[in-house]
């Protein structure tokens, strides 16, 4: 019995901690942005309704809500709006609002209908007009309807991510959506636990509120993860869209600066070809392509891969990867030193300068400069 009380206490702590984190996230997000874009709005509403639902459950289980019979078990069906808000966030994040419905009106209608119906059921129950068994049956029916509707939107979200990528090629140029795919996996676990809770409630194998404990705990953990990921990724996306336009305007200064690199390490053998190779990479800004490879360069210059590799190694005293990364780092340094780019995150700058991951960017920058991008930026101020 003591072990079960300890487990319950830990569960309650984790759930209320998740609720607090969710509300803090909402406050911090709205207070830190001058303009609240639709993706940020619906991401915050997703976290807000999830937090409200868990807070309400925690307060009810603790006995802090109504004490009267029947009404003490009444709750507002916030959980109806959780999945719809994430689906709306996804629609606006992928810029598909003109191609796909966000189902906002239908979701709000379902919420209002369930709220009114639930109020009527509990009013009749409190006046003895219906039996407790009928109220329990309604709860199970409402859970089933909400689960089915939420699952419907969840499946539509999965299809958007895995089947209809052709609808948003511009977004995929900046975000591979791996974080969304991870969320879909975690969301699938939550749905499985939700279905399990409904089964427990219908069969009576596990009684309320314990039947909802796994579901509430998993949703609380989801708040921690999706709050950071969604906000960070959207901020990164907007930064990269603007950065990509600005970086490509700086081709002249980058070309002049980059062309001077490796100038002192050239040898007479293959020097002219090496100069053409470097000129091509800089003039065409090929170093900004995170998937740029020695094979691609050889094809563009109509050279053999082995011959091109030898020329680069001989004249730069380094391999192809480090050779291209040196241009990327030079571009990053230029942007970090400019006040015009001070509002953009360092990670966004690194990714838009051609690095395919944050870790690769930080590693290459320190290898070329001996310090981290953060340290370099602080030295420029």
UniProtKB/TrEMBL annotation:
Protein keywords: DNA-binding, Membrane, Transcription, Transcription regulation, Transmembrane, Transmembrane helix
Lineage summary: Bacteria, Pseudomonadati, Bacteroidota, Flavobacteriia, Flavobacteriales
Record's protein name: AraC family transcriptional regulator
Spans traversing the lipid bilayer: 6-28, 40-56, 76-94, 106-125, 145-162, 183-202, 222-243
Coiled coil regions in record: none
Protein origin, superkingdom: Bacteria
PANTHER family: ARAC-FAMILY TRANSCRIPTIONAL REGULATOR, HTH-TYPE TRANSCRIPTIONAL REGULATOR EXSA
Domain HTH araC/xylS-type: 271-379
PROSITE patterns: HTH_ARAC_FAMILY_1, HTH_ARAC_FAMILY_2
Pfam families membership: HTH_18
Stored InterPro entries: Homeodomain-like_sf, HTH_AraC, HTH_AraC-typ_CS, Tscrpt_reg_AraC-type_HTH
């Amino acid at each position: 019995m003591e072990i079960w009380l300890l487990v319950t206490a830990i569960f309650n702590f984790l759930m209320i901690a998740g609720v607090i984190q969710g509300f803090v996230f909402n406050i911090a997000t709205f207070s830190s942005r001058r303009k609240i874009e639709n993706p940020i709005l619906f991401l915050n509403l997703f976290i807000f309704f999830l937090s409200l639902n868990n807070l309400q459950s925690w307060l009810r289980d603790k006995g802090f809500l109504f004490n009267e019979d029947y009404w003490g078990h009444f709750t507002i069906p916030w959980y109806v709006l959780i999945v719809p808000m994430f689906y709306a966030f996804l629609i606006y994040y992928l810029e598909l609002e003109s191609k796909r419905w966000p189902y906002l009106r239908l979701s709000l209608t379902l919420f209002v209908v369930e709220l009114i119906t639930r109020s009527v059921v509990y009013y009749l129950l409190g006046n003895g007009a219906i039996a407790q068994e009928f109220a329990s049956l309604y709860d199970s029916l409402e859970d089933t309807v909400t689960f089915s509707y939420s699952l419907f939107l969840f499946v539509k979200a999965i299809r958007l991510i895995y089947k209809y990528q052709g609808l948003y090629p511009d977004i995929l140029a900046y975000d591979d959506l791996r974080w969304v795919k991870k969320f879909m996996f975690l969301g699938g676990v939550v749905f499985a636990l939700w279905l399990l809770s409904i089964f427990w409630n219908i069969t009576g194998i596990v009684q309320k509120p314990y039947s909802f404990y796994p579901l509430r705990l998993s949703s609380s953990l989801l708040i921690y993860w999706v709050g950071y990921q969604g906000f960070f990724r959207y901020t990164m996306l907007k930064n990269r869209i603007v950065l990509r336009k600005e970086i490509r305007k700086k081709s002249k200064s980058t070309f002049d600066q980059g062309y001077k690199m490796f100038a002192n390490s050239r040898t007479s053998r293959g020097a002219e070809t090496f100069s053409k190779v470097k000129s091509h990479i800089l003039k065409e800004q090929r170093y900004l392509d995170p998937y740029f490879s020695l094979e691609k360069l050889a094809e563009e210059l109509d050279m053999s891969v082995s011959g091109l590799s030898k020329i680069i190694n001989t004249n730069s005293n380094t391999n192809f990867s480090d050779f291209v990364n040196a241009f990327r780092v030079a571009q990053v340094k230029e942007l970090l030193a400019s006040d015009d780019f001070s509002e953009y995150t360092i990670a966004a700058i690194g990714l838009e300068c051609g690095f395919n991951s944050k870790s690769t960017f930080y590693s290459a920058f320190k290898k070329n400069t001996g310090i981290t991008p953060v340290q370099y930026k602080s030295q420029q101020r």
